[in-house]
Amino acid sequence: MERHVTPRVPEYFNFIANSNVLSATAPAKINLGLCVLRKRTDGYHDLATVFHPIGWADTLTADYADAVSLTCTDATLPIDEENLVVRAARLLKASAGVDRGAVMHLTKVLPHGAGLGGGSSDAATALQILCRLWRLDCTATSLASLALYLGSDVPFFLRRCTAYAQGRGEMLSPLEDYRFPFSLAVVVNPVRISTAWAFRHVEVRETGRPDLAEVVHSNDLDRWRRELTNDFEGPVCSKWPVLSRTKSALLRAGASFASLTGTGSGVYGVFESHKCAEEAAQEAAARGCAIWCEAPS
């Protein structure tokens, strides 16, 4: 039996004027350090990383309907069960015993396969927006359980705050008081990287690892350069040298720190000068890359 309440609407949810349509952003993330510690008996890997949300975002809208359906601005993406948004909607519907549907529209801005978590963020946002639309009494714990079923990093996007992640990425310790005081430029090259390929070629190492949460929290860029590493950067950049060139270009443009994010084709630069960050992003755009630039949070 489904329970109906009127939950608090998070600040990133909006009602579209003169309608019942809900709209919400689905932000990207970057990885501040990413260590692959061990391969587990279940086939997954234990990781350590710090997820940091950024302002680059997709937008999802939802309205009442008899059945679950999805449209998308990106014609290359599936709009059936292969899309995590549809899977999230049907999972929530079945779990809560909902007898209605929703018509959803995804404005896709984030490049896919970029290590930015776009699909996972879309799925988490679908869970949240449909809880509100269907007036369900969804606890944080129940949503997190559904989110983990959809993907290892989906639970992070339910909270949208910087967090230290362990396990598959689902064991989250929020850095509640953390502030990212730097400008950021994110550059995504038009290459597609298989996550499975990246995990097959990464070097697994458990010992001699830094405390990533403590290193990030220090905001000491000298420490970041010494201790914040992404284990996937070596094999991925060897296979796709354009990513190594992108990182070098960001550093030449004034980035104090630069890194691959996740296992994808996204590379970010951390800048102490916002003007330099903007110029670096525009230079990358001129090379045909997708870009995002933002000022300190």
Layout of helices and strands, plus pairs?
Blueprint: E1 13-15, E2 22-39, E3 45-65, E4 68-72, H1 84-96, E5 101-107, H2 118-133, H3 140-150, H4 156-159, E6 163-167, E7 171-174, E8 183-188, H5 195-201, H6 212-218, H7 221-227, H8 233-239, H9 241-252, E9 257-260, E10 266-271, H10 274-286, E11 290-294
Parallel strand pairs: 4-5
Antiparallel strand pairs: 1-2, 2-3, 3-5, 3-6, 6-7, 8-10, 8-11, 9-10
Helix pairs in contact: 1-2, 2-3, 6-7, 8-9
Describe the structure.
The protein has about 300 residues and is an alpha+beta fold. It has 2 domains: about 15-175, Ribosomal Protein S5, domain 2; about 185-295, Alpha-Beta Plaits (2-Layer Sandwich), CATH 3.30.70.890. The protein is built from 10 helices and 11 strands. The model is unreliable at about 1-10 (pLDDT under 50).
Structure characteristics:
297 residues, alpha+beta, Ribosomal Protein S5, domain 2, Alpha-Beta Plaits, 2 domains, 7-stranded mixed beta sheet, 4-stranded antiparallel beta sheet, 10 helices, 11 strands
> Which outline best applies?
globular
Low-confidence stretches: 1-11
Count of folded domains: 2
Residue-averaged pLDDT, rounded? 92
In short:
This protein has 297 residues and is of the alpha+beta class. 33% of the residues lie in helices and 28% in strands. Helix 1 (84-96) packs parallel to helix 2 and helix 6 (212-218) runs antiparallel to helix 7 (221-227).
